[in-house]
Amino acid sequence: MDKQTGKGAIAKRRKLEDQKESSFPFPLSGFLPFAISLHEEYLLTLAIDSSQDVCTIALGRDSSVIAEYAFAHKMNLLRRMLPNVESMLADAGSAIGDLDGVIVALGPGSFTGLRIGVTIAKSLAYVLGKPIVGIGTLDAMARGLAPVEDDALICPMIFARADEAYWSLFDSTADTRLNNYAVSTLGEILDDLSARDRRIYLCGTGARRNWNAISARLGDLAVLAPAWDDFARGAALIELGAKRLAAGEDDNAMALAPLYVRKPFITKPGAGKPQSRKEES
What we know:
By secondary structure, the protein is an alpha/beta fold. It has a domain at about 140-230: Nucleotidyltransferase, domain 5, CATH 3.30.420.200. Helices cover about 35% and strands about 20% of the residues. It is built from nine helices and ten strands. A five-stranded mixed β-sheet has the order 3-2-1-4-5, with helices on both faces. A five-stranded mixed β-sheet has the order 8-7-6-9-10, with helices on both faces. Helix 3 (about 75-90) packs across helix 4 and helix 5 crosses helix 9 (about 235-245). The chain is globular. Mean pLDDT is about 85; it is low at about 15-40 and about 265-280.
């Protein structure tokens, strides 16, 4: 099935709106506001992030969010995802078939949550014949906090398990990622951050759960973001994803996979094969 690019989606929507205008019993040229709304060119996108305990779904027109819904989940994410998507679309006066593209957070994060969210996003894109793009969850978290003061850094951290977190590091605008995605111990993260001797804005569940240790080590150089920045914001996913869709930089819906960040394998002396600690499920 051919994938429809962002520009192709706009052209198709423009053609449909032209048809709507021609069906009116009077010309719309004298009614400028109506003519503008019918000729509005935009990408209608759905964004999904299921990488953490709070799932976020959002609907966007181009790079602007028009609806966003976040809900905590435990073992019922699969059952709740599509009904919530349909409800949000209905509230916005749209349906799944109106979508021009799908945006999905790839992680790192909960393995089970990521598998569910990414599979649903890929299935929607494939069935609808629409483009899909994957966005790093840490990138979206950093984008939601940016911009911060010049020369400062942004460090999103997602809780992985006791004393470990998924993390990366970004510049003050979140446009440039300075570190690869990693899962590290808190001590390893703090060693890296303290060596930079710059103000660090931290966000996410990994930072909040370990804030006492972080502030004790980094002192006034560490700033903890508000609780609403603990998770990827739908608006940030929409902005990052719409930019790629508009540029035609969509991913292969069949090959797209969650971003599983693993600790390096360690071979114990005398052991026959490498071992690693069990990861979050």
